[in-house]
């Protein structure tokens, strides 16, 4: 049985993007290497339309000239994984190993976890909010960047409460902190 993991880079004040939708403050090559290693555990990505549109870049990133090795490595990881896109507006998907679902069905995700041999990741705070509220998320992984952005899209949705159990913490390059928590109890 696979775990469902919610993992994103956040600002110190808990946002995955700033008020303009940017997240330039979030990355460094050394952090990307760490993310690549963590991503190897994922056999399936659950994404909403907006996150899919951002992440689908990795389907053809290897064709872009001058890509660093760390980017090419992540492109291979993304391409090898299954993807489930949840969208009521997207008409088709343009990446391999991808299927489109119109609604987020907690029972279907629960069944997917049960039959999965590898972990799954729910990407993007909007879709993750559905999974968190349904009690499906087993673990959260935060890459906390050294920035306060003052607003934007929050990592955790309003109204969700949980006691977290710290599983791992590491200081990464550029003063980024990696925090990994189990979600033993969750209440909306």
TrEMBL record:
One of its GO terms (molecular function) is 5-amino-6-(5-phosphoribosylamino)uracil reductase activity. It comes from the Bacteria. Residues 3-177 form the Bacterial bifunctional deaminase-reductase C-terminal domain. InterPro entries: DHFR-like_dom_sf (IPR024072), RibDG_C (IPR002734), Riboflavin_Biosynth_HTPR (IPR050765). Signal peptide: none annotated. GO terms for biological process: riboflavin biosynthetic process. Transmembrane segments: none annotated. This is Deaminase. The lineage of its organism: Bacteria, Bacillati, Actinomycetota, Actinomycetes, Micromonosporales.
């Amino acid at each position: 049985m696979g775990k469902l993991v919610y993992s994103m880079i956040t600002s110190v004040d808990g946002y995955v993007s700033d008020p303009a939708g940017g997240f330039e403050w979030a990355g460094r090559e050394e952090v990307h290497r760490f993310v690549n290693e963590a991503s190897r555990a994922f056999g399936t990505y659950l994404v909403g339309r907006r996150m899919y549109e951002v992440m689908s870049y990795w389907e053809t990133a290897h064709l872009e000239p001058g890509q660093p090795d760390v980017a090419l490595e992540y492109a291979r990881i993304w391409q090898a994984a299954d993807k489930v896109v949840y969208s009521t507006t997207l008409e088709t998907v343009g990446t391999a190993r991808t299927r489109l679902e119109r609604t987020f069905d907690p029972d279907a995700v629960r069944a997917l976890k049960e039959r999965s041999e590898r972990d799954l990741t729910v990407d993007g705070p909007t879709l993750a909010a559905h999974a968190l509220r349904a009690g499906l998320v087993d673990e959260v992984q935060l890459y906390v960047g050294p920035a306060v952005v003052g607003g934007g899209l929050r990592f955790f949705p309003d109204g969700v409460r949980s006691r977290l159990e710290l599983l791992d913490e590491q200081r990464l390059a550029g003063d980024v902190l990696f925090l990994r928590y189990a979600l033993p109890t969750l209440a909306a």
